[in-house]
Amino acid sequence: MDIWILTFFDKAKAMPCIGICIVKVEDFLSAVHKSHQEGCNPGGEVLGEIAMHGYVPPSEFMNVLIDEDMAERLDAIMDPIMEKALH
After folding, report:
1. What angle do CA 38, 40, 42 make, to 5 degrees?
2. How far apart are CA 46 and CA 57, in angstroms?
3. In Å, what is the CA distance from 1 to each residue of 49, 51, 53, 66, 70?
4. How far is CA 56 from CA 6, 11, 41, 59, 61, in A?
5. pTM, whole model, 2 decimals?
């Protein structure tokens, strides 16, 4: 299984990114399905990508709708970890 990062958009809004959801599944369609099951899919258009190898966010960020504030906290946690992993 892979960690998928789903980003949800509503292009009609001034800030088109609605939020992000991170799930661990086998493929994109399973990621979208899991986001519905977990209640972290707000609708709109969705873009999905497999997270970089070694990217394992803390459990509090899995299977939830991540807003801008949570995304900043997640970046603050993961950026140093990923930087170290790349060197």
Report:
1. 135
2. 20
3. 13, 11, 12, 21, 24
4. 15, 29, 20, 9, 10
5. 0.85
Per-residue H/E/C for the chain: CEEEEEEEECCCCCCCEEEEEEEEECCHHHHHHHHHHHCCCCCCEEEEEECCCCCCCCHHHECCCECHHHHHHHHHHHHHHHHHHHC
In this structure, the number of other CB atoms found within 10 A of the CB of residue 22 comes to: 21
Mean pLDDT of 39-60: 89
Question: CA–CA separation, 83 vs 68, rounded Å?
Answer: 22
Name the band, by pLDDT with cuts 50, 70 and 90, for residue 29: very high
Q: What one-letter code names the amino acid at 2?
A: D
